[in-house]
Write a structure and sequence with these properties.
The structure is a homodimer.
Chain A (H helix, E strand, L loop, with lengths): L12 H21 L4 H13 L1 E3 H8 L3 H13 L3 E6 L2 E9 L1 H10 L1 H7 L6 H16 L2
Chain A binds a DNA duplex through helix 1, helix 2, helix 3, helix 4 and strand 3.
DNA sequence: CTATAATTAATTGTGTCCAATTTAATAAAG
DNA sequence: CTTTATTAAATTGGACACAATTAATTATAG
């Protein structure tokens, strides 16, 4: 019996898994400067863009469920970066809103993508191809 | 000030991060059948190929440190799939060896890559490109 | 040979992730 | 209007992932 398909080097999943962790690791020194974890950072990204979102919408954008999101949002609230409140129109919904302090962090955060760009050794066209392939993989969920 | 670089949709890191989690999630039903988590599965892959490795080498291959690996290997030992023992030549090293039961699992595991292939909607050439780009990204660590 | 350095696992603490369940609120059906 | 179904967050439990520290062993320098 041929077990080649079971070799680590023949997996597509493994470099994907390793790469994702590697990139998060490369973000860490830059994110440390603004005291955010990677998960907190991508949550803040959505808030910087929209200022206010429901937990449900945030979860859809980040592809994370409440089990992950709830503690992250509580942490961001603790840091004074967001407010958490129920929607009076529908109390099932949690509305997350950027605070002035959260908004203020945006300027410092803007330097992160610049710094990261220097860390990724892909040509622009390679990055574009990678981006497209990843979204194609994600697409059919 | 232009904050476009801070938008989630303009990140390369995010689809990478989301994709990695998505793929692990798609593995789950197949891995459940052989009672392995994803991390346990990739550790077993190395063992199926080499039968015996040090914890250090395994960590290098999987890009995981002892903080992650130690509990995973203890779990695999609990399940009777591997043995854990110190190297008599150098007691700092932990030698992990496949048990007959671990070896026996290989046949069942061989079906996992087949089943997964059907789950990934990329053309062979696209998968090859993705593979190459991911390893290029990983390369310069 | 002995003190110091280096190497390897294990441990500790924090923060995800996710499946499954629970709780609360709203919607829909009868 | 009330019972049932649906929806959304929170909670719980298990398993990573990693930085930092500790402990044990081996190597090296003087």
């Amino acid at each position: 019996m041929n077990y080649d398909a079971l070799k680590l080097e023949n997996q597509l999943c493994f470099p994907l898994y390793a790469c994702a962790r590697e990139i998060v690791k490369r973000y860490k020194p830059f994110l440390d400067e603004i005291d955010l974890t990677y998960t907190q950072y991508i949550a803040m990204m959505v808030l910087w863009e929209h200022r206010q979102v429901t937990s449900k919408l945030l979860g859809e954008k980040l592809r994370l469920d409440s089990g992950t999101l709830t503690p992250v949002l509580k942490k961001l609230e603790e840091k004074g970066l967001v407010d958490r409140a129920r929607d009076p129109q529908d109390e099932r919904n949690l509305v997350v809103t950027l605070t002035p302090r959260g908004e203020a962090l945006r300027t410092a955060a803007a330097r992160v993508p610049e710094q990261m760009a220097a860390c990724v050794s892909l040509e622009p066209d390679e990055a574009a191809t990678l981006y497209k392939l990843l979204y194609k993989l994600l697409g059919n969920n």
